[in-house]
Amino acid sequence: MTERHRTALEAVTAAIHAAPDAQHAMEQTVQLLAKHLPDYTWTGIYLLDGNELCLGPFVGKPSPHTRIPVGRGICGAAVAEKATIVVDDVNADPRYLACSIETQSEIVVPIMSNGTVLGELDIDSDRRAAFTGDDRALLEQVAALLAPKLASRQG
Description:
Layout: H1 3-18, H2 22-36, E1 42-49, E2 52-59, E3 67-69, H3 73-81, E4 85-87, E5 105-113, E6 116-125, H4 133-154
Helix pairs in contact: 1-2, 1-4, 2-4
């Protein structure tokens, strides 16, 4: 993992552990990821509510997609597949739900607890093929850190 990714992970880890609740943990996470990783031009969290993803905290331009059905778009596909999805060129992926004309690539990482999807991290970049294995490793670790906070909200 690059130094920038390690620094981001350390900052996010500290913030999540210090957060008094899931809302604060999510807000700090999206802010810190956007701050530390300049290619992350839209950084957000969607929360699963029944069969829909509902937009939670985000950093970037407002999204027209505040509710996304499971299975629709790249975000919905990641929930249905319970797997990280990396799209190097959103314009070449028919699943992509356009949010911003500038967006070129996207990574979506499910936040899961005991095999159940609670939500997901959704990151867009204005650069094509912006997301590397380091980004995937970082964001999957962040999702694992967020999972207990989100699970406690549902308790």
